[in-house]
Structure to design on (358 residues):
């Protein structure tokens, strides 16, 4: 696109925070309308990947995990960070295997989006996993329990606002969309 | 619930970062299985609220805005931070009015979730706005353009993975769910 009249230009900036998961830059930015502003951007070192594991009856395998950030015991889909050099689909499959003890023989792309677009460059990569096979046990360190859920059960959880993990909610909505 | 065997207990912690939008705590945490770990939590000072504005023909009013975090010119629903002492629904209505120049006469709750559950306590509060009335102009500082979209147009944007803002994507999927 040659029209970049809408682009906010970085004039200068500095890294104001870093930990093993993300860095934070504070940039001085030139707005297209001519004024300057400060903008903080959270930059995760790695994207994240999540997967909707579906069995032959159409049930979804979910994990229940405690979220220290909110103190909630939350039903979610398997998800985690993409390792360096790792493909997003491979990461989704690995996280599923590690967290649930189940493997997907086929992994299909579902969606790619930015969960906190105003403050972070974080990208969530969503997949669907089919051809499930149990190859081990679920990870008792990260996961409280696992379970297979029918679509009507998941829809009920949504109607009651019980699915509060954004990645899982968005992935399940996209998976069921137009079906 | 009396069973708190799954709770990760905070042993100690310190605030390692602060800016006008959020703070970051680094906590030492006792896992229920007996080992200790460090956990970083991003804690926004305020929740955010977003609104799906729907006209009488069922079209959704969206805003196109440049996102400095990703360099994307993105179609989104009106959204923003909830001010101190402000009700989330009122914040959603205010953001819509400020960003689009349109007002909603009725604001209904849609959903409440955590967009980055692994790293942040951030809460997104979603609403639907009905009974639209134009009361001013859209905000040329924050917004590139605005437009009304039919459901089939929005579904097409989703099919092409063009809606990349998580809050908007999730809100629109929830709004169209089961319709």
């Amino acid at each position: 696109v040659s029209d970049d009249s809408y682009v906010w230009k970085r004039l200068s900036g500095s890294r104001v925070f870093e930990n093993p998961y993300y860095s934070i830059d504070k940039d001085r930015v030139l707005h297209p309308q001519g004024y300057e502003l400060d903008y903080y951007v959270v930059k995760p070192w790695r994207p994240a990947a999540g997967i909707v594991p579906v069995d032959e009856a159409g049930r979804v395998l979910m994990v229940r995990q405690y979220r220290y950030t909110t103190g909630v015991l939350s039903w979610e889909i398997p998800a985690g960070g993409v390792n360096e050099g790792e493909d997003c689909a491979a990461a989704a499959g690995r996280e599923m295997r590690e967290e649930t003890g189940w493997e997907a023989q086929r992994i299909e792309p579902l969606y790619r989006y930015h969960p906190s677009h105003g403050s972070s460059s974080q990208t969530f990569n969503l997949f669907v996993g089919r051809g499930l096979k149990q190859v081990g046990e679920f990870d008792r360190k990260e996961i409280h329990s696992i379970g297979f859920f029918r679509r009507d059960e998941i829809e009920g959880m949504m109607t009651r606002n019980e699915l509060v993990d954004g990645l899982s909610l968005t992935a399940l909505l996209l998976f069921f969309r137009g079906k």
User: Anything to note?
Assistant: The mean pLDDT of chain A is 96.
